Amino acid sequence: MNFKLRLRIALMILMAISVSAWADDYGDTPETAAAISPNGAANLGMITDENDTDWFWFTPTSLGLYRIEINKAPTGYTDSKSIKVYQKDEFDVLKQVINWSSNNTGEYIGRDIFVEADRKIYIEVYSGADESNYYLKAHDLGSYSVDSYGDNLATATPIANDTMMTGLITRVNGELDVDWFEVNLTAGHIYRFDIKALCDNAGIAMKLYHTDGNKAGAYYNDTNGTTYCSPVDITLMVKVSGNANKVGEVYQFTCVDLGEVSDDHSDLSSDATMVTEEDGTINCVGAVDFDADYGGESYGGDNDWFKFSPVANQLYLVTGTMEEGTSRKDIKVFQIDDFGTLSQYSVTVSGDGEEAGIFIENDNDVYVKVYGGTSDGYDFEFIASGDYSDDYSDDMETATDVAIGAEHVGSINRGNPLDTDWITFETQALHKYQIALTYRSKSSDVAIRLYANDVAVSSNVQVYNFVAWENEEYKILISGRGDNFSECYRFEIIDLGPVADDDYVNGPNGANILPTDTTLVAGGIDYVAGYNSDVDFFKFDAAADGDYTFAITAGAPKGYKYLRVYRMNDLDNLIQVDYTSTYYENDPKSKTLALTQGRYYVKVESAYIANYEISIDSPTPRCGDANHPYPQGDVNTDCVVDLLDFAIMAGNWMVDNNPVNDPA
Fold first, then answer.
1. 346 with 338: CB under 8 angstroms?
2. Residues whose CB falls within 8 Å of the CB of residue 303, separated by 6 or more in sequence, listed in order
3. Residue 450 contacts by C-beta under 8 Å, 6 or more apart in sequence?
């Protein structure tokens, strides 16, 4: 028998054996699951269609670690498989432990699972393919003993650096175990804290604390690792916790001393480097000498502290420059408050070319913390840039009078109550004004509010335009925020000049009479502003009760133009009866209102400069209507036949208006 024939027979026998094995499919439910042996031979299985599942089980030892693996069988099927692993809980209910999918690389894909109890483990295999085969096997990786580490901060287990600790997170009477460790750190050394789960079905995390129970690291639980460098000898507490939804967790924890670091400036504000002013500039120069996740007086790696004596009510412009090609650095600014406490300004300045202003109200020492980025140099400059003290009034009645067209500076001083600045100025009728406020310090939240006749007419803004309809006094309130240090500002009131000619009055007094015989009256919204945009008032008398039709047509641009109808109450206050509006260009809109006899007012307004035409059609009898035709001979339709009509006829006596006689 030649070699090719022997090979062909061998392959046929192998295929026959394989087909026979696949025909013996496994149970489709946990109740019909097939038993397998950890460390035994691989189990060959077949997913016969997209709805088929294969179930297996084995009984683990308590506190045992197992690896479950799956691989494709060598017959050409390449569809991926999905695997779910379960364990029954104390109530005999299946609880999922973990799930994953194979990737058909021809290698075993597995997961390590740790189980606290010795109840049965179930494995479900499935695929979305019509036919798909696989190998499945399990390995016993050994068992662990329950640890005796401290369960709270007071009973934390002391450990030495560079020691690896292996532990379990167990569940006793429904309570989830936690493990506490205590480790001593040497000043100026970097330490690496690492936590590693030894199984894939874990939710292990750690968190660092000081001995008083306050957090020394991140607010959240760290699931990987972190570094810490303290400027003083310190004892840290490490809490290792798990996840109540897991069926068992095993981990390794280490704290490694990475060695001593060099540091050019102290990481403590109490040992801050004193910097003196030179030519109006204060330079904080140094380098971030090492990287760490936490340490110093606050979170971060190397923190360099400086301090200087400021000038009161001074604005300092701060800029930062880095060594070429190095990473960004940031600073935070603090000052000793009236109680001797170091208080942070609401400001962070970045050394990436940004310029920021910081207003220093009093002459208590200022502290600067430099932090962030990688290990490289920096230079932050504080440049004195002007006195921003002010003596503006704190109340409306005694508001400080200021000149229009000049720049004014001020600051919001701390106190209880918080400082406010009241400003007053005189305006000219029908002039437009702009109030412009500029923040000078980075943490400012200063805003202005405009008052007319002691009533607020604007929200808190920085730039505001308004028109003065009369020669009158206006007031401005400048305010800040109670939780912000460092607020100073500049402001200017600018007279933008008279507005365009105002064709109709802006109020009911002196309003033009509006005809009620459908005569079109043309007008325009001549200017707009944040306060006191142009409005046009008219008045008319309803001679009799009846239906009155109001119409409005407006030109470009698109936008609402309103025609509002008012009456006056007994207190001489305008009460709106109704309104109509138009939006599109040359799109007439009308509304019919049932009015009683009396005096009424019409107001036209818009947020856009635009021309308009309005009219009223009243039910009052008048010459020329259907029931009252013009008299014969009334050539000019003024309802009177007089010499003017004869003059018009005489002037046109020989004019031939017959189109039949038109030579054209």
1. no
2. 267, 295, 296, 297, 369, 370, 371
3. 435, 456, 457, 458, 464, 466, 474, 475, 476, 531
Residues ≥6 apart with Cβ < 8 Å to 563: 550, 551, 552, 579, 580, 581, 602, 603, 604, 614
pLDDT digits (tens, 9 = 90+) for 242-290: 998 899 899 999 999 999 998 899 988 999 999 999 888 999 999 888 8
Partners of 538 in beta bridges: 512, 602
Sorted by sequence, the CB contacts under 8 Å of residue 6 that are 6+ apart come out as none
Can you tell me whether residue 17 is helix, strand or coil? helix
267 near 297, Cβ under 8 Å?
Answer: yes
- Tokens 């496994």 -> residue: 26
Which residues, other chains included, contact 594 with Cβ-Cβ below 8 Å and sequence gap of 6+?
545, 546, 547, 548
Tokens of 499: 């507005």
Sequence-separated contacts (24+) of 352-356 with Cβ below 8 Å: 352/320, 352/322, 352/328, 353/319, 353/320, 353/321, 354/319, 354/320, 355/317, 355/318, 355/319, 356/317, 356/318, 356/441, 356/442
DSSP assigned state of 31: G
Give me 503's structure tokens.
Answer: 């064709």
From residue 478, give the alpha-carbon distance in Å to each of 181, 422, 463, 465. 55, 6, 12, 16
Residue owning tokens 């380098």:
287
Strands of 230-354 (E only): list them.
234-241, 249-260, 273-274, 281-287, 294-295, 304-308, 314-322, 330-336, 342-350
Residue 290 CB partners (closer than 8 Å, separation 6+):
190, 229, 261, 262, 263, 301, 302, 375
Helix, strand or coil, per DSSP, at residue 13: helix
Rg of the chain (C-alpha set): 44
Please name the residues in contact with 443: beta carbons below 8 A apart, sequence gap of 6 or more. 345, 346, 347, 358, 484, 485, 486, 487
Q: What does 281-316 look like in DSSP terms, one character per residue? A: EEEEEEE-----SEETTSSSS--EEEEE-PPTTEEE
| pTM passes above 0.85 | no
- Per-residue b/e over 596-634, b at no fewer than 16 CB within 10 Å? eeeebbbbbbbeebbebbbbbbbbeeeeeeeeeebeeeb
Neighbours of 466 (CB within 10 A): 21
Return the bridge partners of 284, or none. 380
Q: Which residue has the tokens 């009252």?
A: 628
Q: What angle do CA 432, 436, 441 make, to 5 degrees?
A: 175
Distance of alpha carbon 65 from alpha carbon 24, whole angstroms: 30
Span 585-642, pLDDT tens digits? 999 999 999 999 999 999 999 999 999 999 999 987 777 665 678 888 888 888 888 8
Which distant-in-sequence residues (6+ apart) come within 8 Å of 175 by Cβ? none
**Structure token pair of residue 349:** 């300045």
Dihedral sign (CA 360, 363, 364, 368) = positive
Q: Which residue matches tokens 């090719």?
A: 4
* Cα–Cα dist 594/13, whole Å: 103
- Distances in whole angstroms, Cα of residue 388 to Cα of each of 345, 421, 425, 449, 490: 17, 13, 21, 21, 9
